[in-house]
Design brief:
The protein contains nine helices and nine strands. The chain has about 240 residues and is α/β, with parallel strands linked by helices. The radius of gyration is 18 Å and the shape is elongated. It binds 2'-O-acetyl adenosine-5-diphosphoribose.
Length: about 240
């Protein structure tokens, strides 16, 4: 059932909820000019994300995988957070620790919009990790001078500090995300295709604990049928409308 005024409905639910969680995906950064993974513009040299974001792809051809990340790092470095990112930062300011932001994005735009506490399920594109000594560092250089880059400490090959298909999510971060979702009364799911697990299991988890689930997406997704409210449109337009006080 679609309420007469879904924006007003969303505003009321946000105002009434003691605890709110939000899960974001690539769609929230689309209006910042960063292509989503499953849109035509998301293809790079005709590779799909699933062809490149895997340990097997990296083992076979680390240079090509790094070239893809270097391309994405270049796009992200030029991008600015949009009104959707800012609205979620504002919600955190208003609710404090009654709000938890969980993202699948590795672009860091939530932080740049002012969000202080961001649970990054898939890591961060500005982190590198040495496959030999496991040291994790931040590296903001664009483009990187050498691909694949080498570890300053031991000379080993670096990999992007992100989670690839088939790899476990960072355990503590995932536990915090699950806990926030179990505790919340409202989960806002914005700009994700809701097909990549385990992130996509957070919405059913919220519902099984009695929370309402609100989806914000330009298109229908596998979540749409079970969400309590679907707001169709760009998150950069909808989030400010439902969050502004
Ligand atoms: P996808 O590219 O799969 O989905 C982006 C979603 O955003 C789609 O459902 C679009 O309809 C929607 N969308 C596009 N523009 C939008 C806008 N302006 N406002 C609102 N919604 C919009 O991206 P994710 O769901 O984030 O993982 O993908 C999940 C994971 O798969 C990623 O974290 C990445 C990827 O491959 C790994 O690399 C491990």
């Amino acid at each position: 059932m679609t309420p007469e005024n879904p924006i007003e409905q969303a505003r009321q639910w946000i105002a009434a909820a003691k605890r709110v969680a939000a899960l974001t995906g690539a769609g929230i950064s689309a209006e910042s000019g960063i292509p989503t993974f499953r849109s035509a513009g998301g293809l790079w040299r005709n590779f799909r994300a699933e062809d490149l974001a895997t340990p097997r792809a990296f083992a076979r051809d680390p240079k090509t995988v790094w070239e893809w990340y270097d391309w994405r790092r270049g796009l992200i470095a030029k991008a600015k957070p949009n009104l959707g990112h800012f609205a979620l930062a504002q919600l955190e300011q208003r609710l404090g620790d009654r709000f938890t932001l969980i993202t699948q994005n590795v672009d860091g735009l939530h932080n740049r919009a002012g969000s202080q506490r961001v649970l990054k399920l898939h890591g961060d594109i500005w982190w590198t990790m040495c496959i030999a000594c496991r040291e994790v560092r931040s590296d903001f250089r664009v483009p990187l001078p050498e691909l694949p880059p080498r570890c300053g400490a031991c000379g080993g090959m670096l990999r992007p500090g992100v989670v690839w298909f088939g790899e476990p999510l960072p355990g503590a971060t995932w536990e915090q995300a699950e806990e926030a979702v179990r505790q919340c009364e409202l989960l806002i799911v914005a700009g994700t295709s809701s097909i990549v697990y385990p992130a996509a299991s957070l919405a059913p988890l919220a519902r099984s604990h009695g929370a309402r689930v609100m989806e914000i997406n330009t298109e229908e997704t596998p979540l749409s049928g079970t969400a309590d409210l679907c707001l169709r449109g760009p998150s950069g337009e909808i989030l400010p409308q439902i969050i502004e006080s």
